[in-house]
Each structure stands twice: as structure tokens, then as C-alpha cells.
Amino acid sequence: MGMEQMLRPLTPAYSAAVRARAAAYRRGLLRTVRLPRPVISVGNLTFGGTGKTPTVVALVRDLARRGRRPAVLTRGYGRKAKEPVLLAGPDALAPVERAGDEPLEMARRLPGVPIAVDADRVRGGRTAIGAGADVLVLDDGFQHLRVERDLDLLLVDAGDPFGGHALPPRGRLREPLSAMARASAVLVTKLGPKTAELSSIAHVVQLYAPDVPVLGARLEPVRVLTPDGPEPPAILEGRTVMAFAGVGRPEAFEELLRELGAEVAAARWFPDHHHHTARDLRRIRRLARRHGAVPVTTAKDAVKLPADHGVWVVEVEMVPVDGSWDPLWELVPGIVP
């Protein structure tokens, strides 16, 4: 008997526990907290990568362009330290073991924006407000029901939208699909060039959440960091690369490299949030040399490498298919000037 078959009887209990917890918050049996600043939650319904970090980066940048002073509240999943950390740009970074990989990536890409790393998001929110924030972006917040939010954005990956339509162990859903009804909006991420997936995914969303608007976004590369400095993504065209990453859905990274015209000669995937060791890096370099390839990874992985790693790093950003985040901000009047 396989592990999935052994664990399958636990699925109903897991589903019941998830539903009971959500109902307890909805009925006021578990206390929620209203922070004294608007809160925008960005989360997902599945285990694995849906593009939360690139979406948070894009929304924070858009809010800042519009004159707001945003901050990010994040748990810092996978970090070894327990104490709260406040990051504020590349000159105030903490070790990855203390802050976590995703908070460090956000801090590097959002200079000057407070990143409050704290498992207690209420306390983190108060810390961010004390640092001058006038709007709070709650990272991975869809299941963090303790913090009340003004906008609840649910991300769905176009390449694997509904986690096999099942809870663990058969699928990757963190909650039943009916939980989509809690969202203010669903953002379908990682859409292809023709956005063909958007209508079919929107149809499924409407079955469970008929009043929730469905928006779309693409994951677009913005630059490639090389040992000689930043380059446009076109530098990958025709280039033989060896890809490696420790992210939720690494095959999406390989697809992105191929779309940019790179020849992926080899790939090495690690578990999500993997902390790359010196031994890992030696093996990666050896494999790259064997194929005459350039080692290339994600921005999330790069923060866990030594400063002289010599690896090419692809930075991406979530871009709305309509060219503007206005349809999202219009759901919460007053969130932007």
C-alpha cells in the first residue's frame, strides 16, 4: 500500500478541521483583529508556488507609485529564528536563516519598504505602522484569518489552478474550493501570451464564488543579474543554461526560460525554501560545466547563495493583463489616491 492510500482516510478529518476553523472565525468564536491601517491580503488556495512574492512586489510598487507608504507583513516561512525581524531595504538585511528567503528577496527588490517578518502578523502590522506604513500588504494571508482585511486577493496558478481538485494526500488544496467565496477577487497568475486559460478557470471560480471577480496576470521577466551586472532578459535567447531552483512549482521556471529562448540542457530541482549548501553549489557548477551551460536560478534562490556565487539570476514581476491594477484597487474605494 502506497503512502497516499495510507493517508487518504485522513482527508475527511483534514477537510472538517479546515471548515470548522473558518466557521469559527466567521461566527466570532475565534477573535479577529482590525489593524488601524488598510490591509491587502495576498494568498492562495493550494500548496506550492502561485507567484505570491512577485505579486506582492508588483502591488507594493504600484501602491508606492501612487503615493502610499506600503509595508509587507510576512511569516518568513522556513527561517530558523523565531524572533521578529524588520527589514528595510538592501542596507538592512538579516541572514537568510533569521529572516527567510522570501522576505529577503522582497527586501532586496523593495528598497526602503518595511518588511515585517513575524509569525504574529498583528504584532508585525503594528511594527510596520510604527515604521511609517499607511497600508499593509499581508503575504500568504488567505488562511491567516486572525487579521481582518480590506481586500482579500486569492491567487490561482494558470498552470495548475486547483491543485488536482482535492485536499491532501490526493491533491494540493489547502482548503476546499468553496473557500474561494471568501475572496474579494481571484487573480489568475502565470497566464500564457494569449491568456487562453483565463475563461476556463473563471468558469470554475464562478461555480463556487459567483460574485467574485476574476482578473488575470502574466509572470514577466524584468532583468537577468549576471556577474558582470544586470542585463535584459533577451540575453538568455540562444543561451545554453543549467536551471536550478527550490520553489513551489519549478517546472514553471523551466517553461519561462524556454519562452525566453534559452536551451535548458539540464535542471536540478530542490524542495521549496531549500537552503543551498556549498556542496549543492559545487554539484551545480560541475553539472553546468559538463553541459557547457550557464547556471541560472530564481531571485528567491539567489538570496541563499554566497555573494560570489557566479550564477545568473532571473528576476520576474507579475504584470496585469489589462496593463493596470486599477480594476483591483477599485474594489476598495480610497485604497489609492
- Helix count from the secondary structure assignment: 11
CATH class term of the largest domain: Alpha Beta
Structural class: alpha/beta
* Percentage of residues in DSSP E strands: 15-25%
Rg from C-alpha positions? 20 Å
CATH architecture of the largest domain: 3-Layer(aba) Sandwich
What is the helix content? 25-40%
Give the tally of β-strands. 13
Distance between the termini: 59 Å
Listing every helix as H and every strand as E from the N terminus to the C terminus, the arrangement reads: HHEHEEHHEHEEEHEEEHEHEHEH
**Uncertain residue ranges:** none
The fold-level CATH name of the largest domain is Rossmann fold
Mean residue pLDDT: 92
Shape: globular
Describe this structure in a few short sentences:
The protein is of the alpha/beta class and 337 residues long.
Describe this structure as you would to a colleague:
This protein is α/β, with parallel strands linked by helices. The protein has 2 domains: 11-219 and 319-329, Rossmann fold (3-Layer(aba) Sandwich); 228-309. It has helices spanning 3-7, 11-26, 52-65, 96-99, 101-109, 121-130, 197-208, 250-259, 278-290, 299-302, 326-329; strands spanning 39-44, 70-74, 85-88, 114-117, 135-139, 151-157, 185-189, 214-226, 229-231, 240-245, 263-269, 294-298, 312-320. Strands 1, 2, 3, 4, 5, 6, 7, 8, 9, 10, 11, 12 and 13 form a 13-stranded mixed β-sheet that branches. A hairpin with a 2-residue loop joins strand 8 (214-226) and strand 9. The longest helix is centred in the first third of the chain and has 16 residues, at 11-26. It is globular. The protein starts with a helix and ends in an 8-residue tail after the last helix. The mean pLDDT is 92.
